[in-house]
Amino acid sequence: MQYWRRIVATLVLAVAVLTSASASERKIVWKLAMTWGGTLHPFTTSVESMAKMVETMSDGNFIIRIDSANRHKSPFGVLDMVKAGQYEMAHSASYYWKGKDVNLLPFTSMPFGMTAPEQYAWFYYGGGMELMQKAYAPHNMYSFPGGNTGAQMGGWFRKEIKTLEDLKGLKMRIPGFAGEVLAELGTVVTNIAPGELYTALERGTIDALEWVGPGMDIKLGFHKVAPYYYTGWHEPATELQYLVNQKAYEALPEKYKEMLRVAMRVAAYDMYALNYHESSEAWAQIATEFPHIKIETFSPEIMNAMKAANQKLLKEMSDANPLFKEAMESQAQYLKKVRVWTKMSDFDYLKDNL
Amino acid sequence: MQYWRRIVATLVLAVAVLTSASASERKIVWKLAMTWGGTLHPFTTSVESMAKMVETMSDGNFIIRIDSANRHKSPFGVLDMVKAGQYEMAHSASYYWKGKDVNLLPFTSMPFGMTAPEQYAWFYYGGGMELMQKAYAPHNMYSFPGGNTGAQMGGWFRKEIKTLEDLKGLKMRIPGFAGEVLAELGTVVTNIAPGELYTALERGTIDALEWVGPGMDIKLGFHKVAPYYYTGWHEPATELQYLVNQKAYEALPEKYKEMLRVAMRVAAYDMYALNYHESSEAWAQIATEFPHIKIETFSPEIMNAMKAANQKLLKEMSDANPLFKEAMESQAQYLKKVRVWTKMSDFDYLKDNL
């Protein structure tokens, strides 16, 4: 009897120890709300690849369920939903929150701002991440880069834009801060749902529109109805954002925190490479099938007017918001140095190899 | 007695099940050999960050021990050591193996080739990774991108290079394939150990040398003794490589395979961003402290001669090696499309914003 008792005691102890180790592997299930509908490739597929990496690395123990806007019905409510803890995380773009909190505007892309390699250098090594956390802290969340579209094109125009006069009264769909800049120049900025854009452009309800770049634009068919494709100025590197509820993140075991951080980071970089690839392929296809389409760049007169309007608006916003001002100054100072390097490295190489 | 026996049987079963689950968590320890000495930042620190990510994500159960060349004493032996399974993995640059297997040359950087964003798009979405695995398969290994320096500078010169005549007889340290291109133009290409480079340049033993870019060059002090810094042509985006023994990789549990893949990928992208940042900072410092240093670009006459020599050498190698030819054709075809996109996106934006 003594013998059996000792064995039982030992086994009970062993089971207790192993069960507690196993309990730390208990499945964690998070919910992520996207601003996007379910099929907005490559935004949605990038989020899916992030969740898949976390699932595989955690051996199926950390699952992130993705709700598209088709399901949660609130594309621009995701900030509030993560803040309230209704979703543990979201995928969106920081510049959508300008109306709620202007301090969140600077982390997606700014007119006449940094290119993607410059911006990644700023985020990760030039103080950008720290400023982004400072701006998101009042919303009880962390924010992480969520994928880059690369330089966005200036938009599809039915008619050539030669002078500032041509912009006056022009009806254009261009959302956000870039729209405010053009409004300063007399453009009539309109807001039209994505599903109605093609018809609006075809029928002349609008004269021009801005979407993303060839890779994403080609699916909407704008090249069939507007023969002028202008190069960009307003979003030289549009970085999307992951938003993560602070309390939910801090409650994760260290290994899951790291899996999430690393998976978001690689999915973001990958989206930049994928957008680069798809824009290159899509433009080659458009140029072959629609050889009459012209790539144009706005004239120096127009560019200078845009820059002046941009500076005027930024100054107004900076004067009223110290944290916004701090982010703008950080970007301006960084850009001053990094653009010199961009010129002597990639730019000088490219100008002899176009 | 019956009662005790049933309890014991149940407990024995429970322990067996839990012990087997726990056994799959047995610690895995790998060894990684670097081509670099122990302090070649940011190459070595990038490898360290990769290993740290794997360690944290695996909760300390997958450890990668790093040996620098100071320890294993064989910087250019790492390919053979991984092939033989002496090390599970290595960190090096694929173009170092040109002499052993020319098919491995195309995966680091080629003269007049792709920029970093173009090359990442090619690797991950344009067929580059598949070609790289095909080239490494005969060596029983997989290869993964291992970090990018960005565009490398053309080098530090004691005298200005105005004509092709100035290159003839010029003594320059420029290793690898770029050195062969310059040798075609009459440059006397020499090989000097890194530790002796500064003195050789200072004393005029050599007239010029190529290293990396401002971020890594500044530590070696070349700017103190050579006032002409030429822009690059020979390595527009130098991607290092991880080499992984195929058998060792395939023996890993799926979750560890994924942690390794993801950690290598993010460390590689991060190194590109970090090099961008450090080159920008270092050049700002050099330009401030040594304002006499001139950034120069080789003349069209010199560039065209380099391009012709490059094409001649590539053709000879392509004719003799079908797999090398396949990789060169893939890069050339990709470049043709992607450079058009680079021009209309980043280049056209930059030319109005320098």
Can you describe what's shown?
2 copies of one chain form a homodimer. Chain A is of the alpha/beta class and 354 residues long. The first copy, chain A, has 2 domains: 18-147 and 238-277, Bacterial extracellular solute-binding protein, family 7 (D-Maltodextrin-Binding Protein, domain 2, 3-Layer(aba) Sandwich); 155-234 and 292-320, D-Maltodextrin-Binding Protein, domain 2. Helices cover 51% and strands 14% of the residues of chain A. Chain A contains 14 helices and 11 strands. Chain A has helices spanning 2-23, 43-57, 69-72, 78-83, 116-125, 128-136, 164-167, 176-184, 197-203, 214-217, 246-250, 254-289, 300-320, 322-351; strands at residues 28-34, 62-67, 89-92, 141-148, 155-157, 171-173, 188-190, 208-209, 228-230, 239-245, 294-296. In chain A, the strands form 2 sheets. In chain A, strands 7-6-8-5-9-11 form a 6-stranded mixed sheet, covered by helices on one side. In chain A, strand 1 (28-34), helix 2 (43-57) and strand 2 form a beta-alpha-beta unit. In chain A, helix 6 (128-136) runs antiparallel to helix 14 and helix 8 (176-184) crosses helix 13. The longest helix of chain A has 36 residues, at 254-289. Chain A is globular, with a radius of gyration of 24 Å. At the A-B interface, helix 1, helix 2, helix 5, helix 12 and helix 14 of A face helix 1, helix 2, helix 5, helix 12 and helix 14 of B.
